[in-house]
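ENTRY TYPE: paired fold submission
RECORD: A
CONTENT: sequence, then structure tokens
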Amino acid sequence: MHNMKSYVAGVALLFTTCAVAGVYEDMIHAVKNDDERTVSELLKRGVDVDSVSPEGESLLTLAIKGGKVSLIKMLLEARPKINTPNLHGETPLMLAAFKGQTDIVRLLLDKGAAVNHSGWTPLMYAATSNRIDIARILIARGADVNATSDNGTTALMMAAREGHAPMVLLLLEHGADVNHKTKFGYSALELALDREMREIADILIGAGAEQ
């Protein structure tokens, strides 16, 4: 009798576990496909808004990759952990900044997304993809123009490396350190010259870059 009860309990637990796993898979699928109706229903049923896909992406991150503002608003109303990074260390704000999603960047900031943190930052991502408007927003919200990644890279270096003259000028205007060097000893000027970005090099030299 005891063995039978244990068996029944085990089977019940297995079915419950499978059912829960299925619901979470449904949620991830719904977010990936911008299915707001299903997302809303699953949130009402108690599915955790901080659920993570097998690839390490949060629901919010998945929604940002899709870019549907109304879906992102729905998830934000459920109060997710807004600064949780994916397996690559990218926060939702970093991804939105890189993709140039101005409205989403504002939404995330208004909900408390961190503009500054260790490692790569949203401003660095905006600088890399030349998102001038977003860079302005981030700086206005207190982004550290001279923040460095783990290897010493700055937003100015990324803008210089990619040849984004307007971004370089914006960052210099807001106090970017033109002579900062990475842990490997490279400056923004050296990165620009390495990629034959003569226009960028001239801007940096004009701003006082050491040659």
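RECORD: B
CONTENT: sequence, then structure tokens
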Amino acid sequence: MSRHYLAANAVFRMAMRALDIEVRPEGLENIPTSGPVILASTHVSYPDFVFVQHAASGSDRKLRFMSRYDVWNNSLAASFMDGMRHIPVDRDAPAAALLRARQMLDEGEALAIFPEAGISYSFTVRPLMRGVAALARATGATVVPTAIWGSQRIYTVGNPEPPFDYRRGRKVDVVFGTPIQATPDSDPTEWTRQLGHTLTDMLEELQQRPQHRPRPGELATWYPAHLGGHAPTREQAFDLDVWPTSAVMPTWGPDPEVYRS
């Protein structure tokens, strides 16, 4: 493991201990122990990459994240991101990032991708990019659908955006689902739609667990409206969420017709 990975992991573990954050992984056996793999994860908070990496550490795979290119604007962050072999992504011109990702998968690496390319204000699965499908078709990489929930209580989007919540004792669940494949003749759009349905099922199962539900009478802006919370509905979030025009519009989740208006 590179010194950058060791240093970053040490800092993240120290921060999680200080805040008493418990990351609870499920389905580690679904992550192949070798060969190219893509973890395609839902995205509900800014520090999700920390929790997904921590949850996956029990599999002994070192994840290479595809991340927003502006993280590299900070020279110190850029040094660590490069040292950990993460990949900067310009959503408006993603070709270079996809080429680099394909090269890494051909080397047998494990990638982690947030195919929503952002966090939904409604805490539902937003429009998805086709990159996971394209990479899986081209390289034969196994895709592990991944869902995370609980991290949105710590630091996420909002209107207005809430501050970082330093309260101790948060629980973050990360579920690694049944592996799936894309064949060379898979239709990228239809395959991505199926991924959207799978991620939605996994996310909603997590959201409806008793430990993640709001207390009776609680103002739960961190919980989806269609499940009884007070986050924006999908219709309300439509004007807040921003996604690339090339994204696949949802046929999954509540009120998908919002995206066809």
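NOTES ON RECORD B: The longest strand covers residues 142-149. The CA atoms of residues 116 and 128 lie 5 Å apart.
STATUS: closed
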